[in-house]
């Protein structure tokens, strides 16, 4: 019988110790791996949706809330700003601004947000048409790939929007139906989760709710087609925010623009990179606490492996002595105990791996339904190889003292007793 089989038989001979060690070790490894999976995928989602946007302008309030709402579409707006006050930053000839993308938010369809905007938003996320065409006239929409798949929408389908972003808050508007005229290719960005229309459609929806317009089924769409629509002609209308890219990130005036807006206007400007880093730092406190807890659990499990092996030596001292009589060297006994420790740690690692990846799949379904962001447990991180090596090292260290005791087994004294 080879040493690996013998080590395994010795391990399963003590099932309670086996279960305790594997569960403790698995919890520690599982929690660490789950945090790595969550951190990695969350950071990838956030970084991918930065889209080289240098500044967001919106209503006064929490800058982080404005960024999360306008760029990641996972929070509520801080309010609206008028086109009149935002006019300088919507000017296509602004000397410092390369791209400005206005957004009008507030409505949704089955929890997927409807965004009033222009075609420039596609440039930010490298969006392309998969089928159909881009929205042109009022109440035409182009939808992201995930929207089409989640809701089963296809070209020509019609629907009515609802006020608010959550199913619980949905209040269906009494206006003409939106019509799907295009579906975008998947981008892996927030664009996949959005329903895009022109700004006039959002304005008319809310004007109608206020009693200012008649039913839009008979509306003359050509008056608000993209080709003849000039945003600056509507200074009294409101938008939610503006996504801005600078022509140069090293220009001193551009770098000072957010501070000047915050100090000299009734609007608010925020840097996405700064706010997301601030979010990372806030999340990091909780992540560090959980990681420390996981390390403590892993150390406790290592101690459990040590106790299990050390106490088992008393029961197996005659067995080890007989192995010596039958020709096993002290080194063989040492290696046998080390093997038992590392095998225990390896199976604890496998338990932790199952816990973390299944747990990530559960969290992914929750994140998908709540935030429309894609997470998955069906992935492998390079860091998990390091966790495997660390697990085996912990098993080795936990088995060192018992292995030394086995190495020093005295045949004559043991058998004479």
Structural commentary:
The structure is a single chain. This protein has helices at residues 3-12, 15-48, 63-72, 83-90, 121-125, 145-151, 199-209, 252-264, 272-325, 330-371, 383-407, 411-416; strands at residues 55-59, 81-82, 97-109, 112-116, 129-132, 140-143, 158-159, 162-163, 171-172, 178-184, 195-197, 238-239, 241-246, 267-270. It is of the alpha+beta class and 417 residues long. Strands 1, 3, 4, 5, 6, 7, 8, 9, 10, 11, 13 and 14 form a twelve-stranded mixed β-sheet that branches. A hairpin with a 2-residue loop joins strand 3 and strand 4 (112-116). Helix 9 runs antiparallel to helix 10. The chain is elongated, with a radius of gyration of 31 Å. The model is unreliable at 212-222 (pLDDT under 50).
């Amino acid at each position: 019988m080879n040493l690996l089989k013998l080590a395994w038989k010795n391990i399963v001979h003590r099932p309670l110790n086996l279960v305790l060690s594997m569960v403790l070790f698995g919890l520690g490894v599982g929690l660490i791996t789950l945090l790595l999976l969550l951190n990695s995928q969350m950071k990838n989602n956030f970084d991918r949706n930065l889209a080289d946007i240098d500044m967001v302008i919106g209503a006064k309030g929490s800058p982080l809330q404005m960024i999360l709402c306008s760029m990641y579409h996972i929070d509520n707006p801080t309010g609206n700003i008028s086109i009149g006050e935002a006019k300088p930053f919507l000017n296509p000839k602004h000397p410092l601004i390369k791209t400005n993308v206005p957004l009008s938010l507030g409505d949704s369809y089955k929890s997927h947000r409807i965004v009033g905007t222009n075609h420039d938003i596609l440039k930010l996320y490298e969006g392309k048409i998969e089928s159909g065409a881009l929205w042109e006239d009022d109440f035409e929409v182009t939808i992201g790939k995930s929207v089409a798949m989640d809701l089963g929408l296809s070209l020509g389908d019609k629907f009515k929007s609802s006020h608010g972003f959550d199913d619980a808050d949905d209040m269906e508007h009494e206006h003409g139906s939106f019509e799907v005229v295009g579906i975008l290719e998947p981008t892996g960005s927030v664009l996949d989760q959005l329903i895009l229309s022109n700004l006039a459609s959002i304005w008319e929806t809310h004007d109608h709710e206020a009693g200012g317009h008649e039913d839009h089924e008979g509306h003359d769409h050509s008056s608000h087609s993209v080709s003849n629509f000039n945003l600056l002609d509507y200074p009294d209308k409101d938008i939610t925010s503006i996504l801005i890219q600078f022509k140069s990130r090293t220009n001193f005036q551009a770098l000072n623009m957010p501070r000047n807006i915050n100090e000299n206007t009734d609007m608010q400007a925020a840097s996405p990179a700064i706010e997301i880093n601030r979010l990372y730092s806030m999340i990091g406190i909780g992540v560090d606490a959980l990681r420390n807890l996981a390390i403590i659990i892993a150390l406790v499990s290592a101690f459990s492996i040590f106790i299990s092996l050390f106490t088992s030596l008393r029961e197996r001292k005659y067995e080890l002595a007989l192995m010596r009589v039958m020709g096993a060297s002290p080194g063989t006994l040492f290696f046998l105990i080390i093997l038992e420790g590392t095998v225990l740690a390896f199976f604890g690692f496998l338990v932790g791996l199952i816990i973390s990846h299944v747990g990530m799949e559960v969290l992914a379904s929750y994140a998908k339904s709540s935030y429309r962001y894609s997470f998955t447990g069906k992935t492998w991180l390079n860091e998990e190889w390091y966790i495997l090596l660390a697990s085996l090292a912990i098993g080795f260290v936990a088995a060192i003292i018992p292995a030394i005791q086995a190495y020093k087994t005295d045949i004559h004294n043991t058998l004479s007793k």
